Amino acid sequence: MEAVTQKNGLFACPRCGKVYQLYHSLQRHLRVECGHEPRHACPNCGRRFKHRFNLLAHLRNWACRKE
Ligand SMILES: [Zn+2]
Ligand SMILES: [Zn+2]
């Protein structure tokens, strides 16, 4: 993933097009966000979370229950 387009002094993600002011921020995005689909899915409602603790908190609150 080396192709980084720069528009108006901004750095655009070559994968998703998200734009960052700092190259460092784009690097972080590529490393920890982009391409990492939220994979922790709630067994009740199917909502997906990037981090396991988000899912655990969601389950603890039963936020997915509509009743
Ligand atoms: Zn991206
Ligand atoms: Zn849920």
Automatic annotation (TrEMBL):
Residues in C2H2-type domain copies: 11-38, 40-67
SMART domains: ZnF_C2H2 (SM00355)
GO molecular function: zinc ion binding
Alphabetical keyword list: Metal-binding, Repeat, Zinc, Zinc-finger
Stored InterPro entries: Znf_C2H2_sf, Znf_C2H2_type
Pfam families: zf-C2H2 (PF00096)
Protein name: C2H2-type domain-containing protein
Record organism: Coptotermes formosanus
Lineage of source species: Eukaryota, Metazoa, Ecdysozoa, Arthropoda, Hexapoda
